[in-house]
Amino acid sequence: MSDDWPLFEVFIRARSGLEHKHVGSVHAADARMAIEHARDVYTRRQEGVSIWVVRSSAIVASDPEEAEALFEPARDKVYRHPTFYAIPEEVKNL
Amino acid sequence: MYTQALDSPTPLKPGSSGAQPSLERRFEERIEQDEKIEPKDWMPEAYRQTLIRQISQHAHSEIVGMLPEGNWITRAPSLRRKAVLIAKVQDEGGHGMYLYSAAETLGVARAEMLEQLLDGRAKYSSIFNYPTLTWADVGAIGWLVDGAAIMNQIPICRCSYGPYARAMVRICKEESFHQRQGFEIMLALARGTAQQRAMAQDALNRWWWPSLMMFGPSDATSTHTAQSMRWRIKRFTNDELRQKFIDATVPQAQFLGLAIPDPALRWDETSEHYLIGPIDWSEFKAVLQGNGPCNRERLAARRCAHEAGRWVRDAAAAYAAKHPEARGVEP
Predict the structure, then answer these.
(1) Between β-strands A50-55 and B266-268, what pairing exists: parallel, antiparallel or unpaired?
(2) A7 contact residues in B (CB cutoff 8 A)
């Protein structure tokens, strides 16, 4: 079995003014080829104006097992949202 | 989609960990609540294996599916038809890539899937083992084969496994042009000369039954359906989807003025469905087992393409080895 080329994650900016968004992954021998493959695979219908590729092995991800520890603490802090505060209706521009 | 490198599955054998029953229960609950399962989440080994099998077969089908139509690119009757056909075949290649990526998130290497396809171990959709004898076949494939594929694939957009569902959303969005261009070809032929109409009818005659078989064995004999539905990989049974396809397609054939090649076909007032005659499942089994009209030809074409591309892959690898700065890693 031949070895796979390295895997690259692909991020595409749909149009200027928007952030790059993860769309998928491609195998390629090097970064330039990864961009060419990403163009062929993910932008056949004008889906983007800019492509980022990054070696998948360079991504560090959070562990789903730790999701609770990481994200639960934000749940009871509703006072971080503007709707938490009751302001009389006659007060404007708040 | 995430990566194999990120997602090397933790080998958890049943009973090997005290935590497993609770993991399994949480998994079932998430499925029950229609939550998506993502690559790094815990999942039962059988769920993983079922998805690897289904997604890789799906990917292989897209790749082999390029061959019957690719056969007509050089002979498309106009520049417009040629451009459309190239775009469609290129889409099928792209769809194969989305699906291989999705399968890889489950911990199977792309090279391994490719090898399984090339050495004949992997299955792909039986439909691509039929020949494309005339230009009308290109129309019939778009109309019927892509039509059946869309019918099959739309429910998979809601599949419980996130990467597969997302790949399917992209694919379904792109495929609707495939079906419409096919119907347009059929329409042009159906409105053409007597010879062209005969060509369209002949294509329908040959593609109708194989298209119905694309939905897989009938519910009574389908081995995977029940579990896949419990896991919300599948949302409808094979027979339900087949019936939807028949109900949608018969009126389209009537519009074209073509006859469905089934003397038993009739509209049933009570159920409000078109009922068909019996499907020849022996043909389906023969094609699946490698004895269809084109099985050997299709695999030979794939192997030949793989071999013919070897020098390109070697050159790219040699270039990357000489230019570490181009590899996308810090030197």
Answers:
(1) unpaired
(2) 3-5, 104
**Interface predicted TM-score (ipTM) of this complex, two decimals:** 0.85
Please list the pLDDT of chain B residue by residue as tens digits (331 residues). Answer: 333 333 334 444 444 444 578 999 999 999 999 999 999 899 999 999 999 999 999 999 999 999 999 999 999 999 999 999 999 999 999 999 999 999 999 999 999 999 999 999 999 999 999 999 999 999 999 999 999 999 999 999 999 999 999 999 999 999 989 999 999 999 999 999 999 999 999 999 999 999 999 999 988 887 778 889 999 999 999 999 999 999 999 999 999 999 999 999 999 999 999 999 999 999 999 998 888 999 999 999 999 999 999 999 999 999 999 987 777 766 5
Rg, C-alpha atoms of chain B: 22
How far B129 CA sits from the closest chain A CA (Å)? 26
Q: How many CB pairs under 8 A join A and B?
A: 88
- CB atoms A26 and B4 under 8 Å: no
Distance from the B164 Cα atom to the nearest Cα atom in chain A, whole angstroms: 11
Q: Give the tokens for residue B256.
A: 């074209």
